[in-house]
Write a structure and sequence with these properties.
Chains A, B: It comes from Nocardioides aurantiacus. Chains A, B: InterPro entries: P-loop_NTPase, Polyphosphate_phosphotransfera, PPK2-rel_1, PPK2-related. Chains A, B: Keywords: Kinase, Transferase. Chains A, B: GO terms for molecular function: polyphosphate kinase activity. The structure is a homodimer. Helix content of chain A is about 45%, strand content about 10%. With about 290 residues, the first copy, chain A, is α/β, with parallel strands linked by helices. Chain A has a single domain, classed as P-loop containing nucleotide triphosphate hydrolases (Rossmann fold), CATH 3.40.50.300. In chain A, strands 2-3-1-4-5 form a 5-stranded parallel beta sheet, sandwiched between helices. In chain A, helix 2 packs parallel to helix 11. The radius of gyration of chain A is 21 Å and the shape is globular. The interface between A and B is large, with 49 and 49 residues.
Amino acid sequence: MSDDRDDRYALADQLRLPPGPVRLADLPTDATPVLDGDKAGGQRALAALGEELADLQERMYAHAYTGGARRVLVVLQGMDTSGKGGVVEKAIGLLSPNGLRITSFKKPTEEELGHDFLWRIDRALPGPGVVGVFDRSHYEDVLVHKVHELVDEPELERRYEAINAWEKSLVETGTIVLKCFLHISADTQRERLLARLDDPDKQWKFKPGDVDERQHWRDYQRAYETALERCHTDAAPWYVIPADRKWYRNWAVARLLLDALRGMELDWPAPDYDVAEQRARLEADSDA
Amino acid sequence: MSDDRDDRYALADQLRLPPGPVRLADLPTDATPVLDGDKAGGQRALAALGEELADLQERMYAHAYTGGARRVLVVLQGMDTSGKGGVVEKAIGLLSPNGLRITSFKKPTEEELGHDFLWRIDRALPGPGVVGVFDRSHYEDVLVHKVHELVDEPELERRYEAINAWEKSLVETGTIVLKCFLHISADTQRERLLARLDDPDKQWKFKPGDVDERQHWRDYQRAYETALERCHTDAAPWYVIPADRKWYRNWAVARLLLDALRGMELDWPAPDYDVAEQRARLEADSDA
């Protein structure tokens, strides 16, 4: 267990989006709040969270076995190359796959398009006791759709409201919704796209369409500003993770998740059977 | 990378169920074929597989991005406490959560019962490039259902055939189906159930119904013998994993999965775009 329970909410306080109008240009992409150090230190700090993360994850999972409804939904959003997949691999990878449900949202299918935008999202929610992770999410429907003007303003307005109502319901019924915007600079994106082109092991990750989308960088930043502002609620606030440094980004998401799980204050559930009686049954059963 | 490519199929050869009538009592639960050593050595051997497993998993995932259809389905079966969850946590946990789909099959829902037994199984299959893991599976429908006589013999016969045809189709369309029976002794099960009762952190895993089911141990062994025998096909053979030692069990499943992935001989896919052209586009785009 780590020894830093005193600063339980220090990170959340620092990364939580401030209230009011959002200007992403004013929020740092390369800062490392709360965690001093460098890459090696950050990777060690991340690894050090693993044991407690897995322990608390299992406690939540155990509670679901005895009727508990608590669960966590981590929503990862960010520009291409901001590291959503990297967070899943390095931070979420510290948890046990048993109590995880990860959904990577792609372009909607025909069937999905036949329903309102939250339909497919709803079907991907984690069950009781499970940590769910969305790699992209319902926010794409107010980002891509706004940038490419696929829907009009009244429809966007309707969606912000629908998102807020939907997330509020989740929270009211036992889910912690941890929304992380992985914030990178345009320069970082270019460097990472170039790195993909340079490395034969990574060329598969590159799509020419990524460069097309990059032409809309400022429009996307504006769409994010509106979405973050409109959907920053008490029930489900946004956290803005400086994500130019991968080691910081991974640690910060893992640490926010750890803090969320700690906040549930879950003991191991008490058995709903008589332990001595069951022990006697098993011991009598000397050879099945 | 490990240095043991020479014995690529040595483990598979040893653990593959022999042809002919199956007698589980003749198959060891506490042996450690191919891997000499002890718990600490076994855990090191398991950890040593992680890097290559994740690398090959990512190659398969990359191929799906460029139209590849290859994928792997790991089917985990075994008596209560045989370690299906432990294999997921310790062996499958070495892979990246990005390209994993894990399904733990519980008692069917009303909707699931409204369809043939393979309906819900089919819906849980991994997509292209993904490693799927079934913690329990369609085999429950020829195990629990046989032991508790929930269906008659002709229906069981129909199911064995249906399973074989279904698995054959999967294999023919690009899936490796890796079926692992985690084989423990009745004594090991009793010890593990008692250990759950003794540990307040594990009492939630214990259900009095586990002791009831244990009364049917011999019936379950017989049901497994028939299922293993009837569904041991060239397309999708069974592997019997000695599972009394957790460290061996975890290593053996990881190693069989590694051998399966190696067998695909996947290079990184070649880019389907002009690298120099894309690099020029990005460099021209000095400030998005």
